[in-house]
TrEMBL record:
This is Transcriptional regulator, contains XRE-family HTH domain. GO terms for molecular function: DNA binding. It holds the Pfam family HTH_19. InterPro entries: Cro/C1-type_HTH, Lambda_DNA-bd_dom_sf. Residues 7-62 form the HTH cro/C1-type domain. It comes from Enterocloster lavalensis. Gene3D superfamilies: lambda repressor-like DNA-binding domains.
Length: 113
C-alpha cells in the first residue's frame, strides 16, 4: 500500500474530506490530493507531522506502513509536542528562535547534571 492510499484510508476513517484536512494542516487541497494520488512520494516533514497530528495517526505507518495506523504511546506524544513547538516558534525571528534553542540546550545540560 502506498503513502497515498494510507493517507486516504486514514482521512476517510476520520470522516474528513480532502478540503477539510488541507484547511486543518494549513495547506491547499492540491497538497492532499497530490499525496493521495502518489504524485508526491516524500511529502515535506512539516506536512507529514501536521497530517499525523490532525488525523491522530502513527507517522511511521503513514510513511512506510510500519506499525498500527492509530497514534499511540510516547512516540505519538513526542511527535505532537515537537509539532506544537515548531508551530509556536516558526513565527519568531531567527534571533528569538536561537534564544529558545539555547534555553532548551541549557535545560538539557542542567538536567544531566
Amino acid at each position: 500500500m502506498s503513502i497515498g492510499l494510507r493517507l486516504k484510508e486514514a482521512r476517510k476513517a476520520r470522516g474528513m474530506s480532502q478540503e477539510l484536512l488541507a484547511e486543518k494542516i494549513g495547506a491547499s487541497r492540491g497538497v492532499v490530493t497530490n499525496i493521495e494520488h502518489d504524485k508526491v512520494l516524500e511529502p515535506q516533514p512539516l506536512v507529514v507531522n501536521a497530517i499525523c497530528d490532525v488525523l491522530k495517526i502513527n507517522r511511521q505507518w503513514l510513511l512506510r506502513g510500519d506499525g498500527p495506523m492509530d497514534e499511540s504511546g510516547e512516540a505519538g506524544r513526542s511527535a505532537k509536542v515537537l509539532s506544537e513547538i515548531y508551530t509556536s516558534v516558526k513565527e519568531l525571528s531567527g534571533e528569538e528562535q536561537q534564544f529558545i534553542l539555547d534555553m532548551i540546550q541549557t535545560y538539557i545540560r542542567h538536567r544531566r547534571g
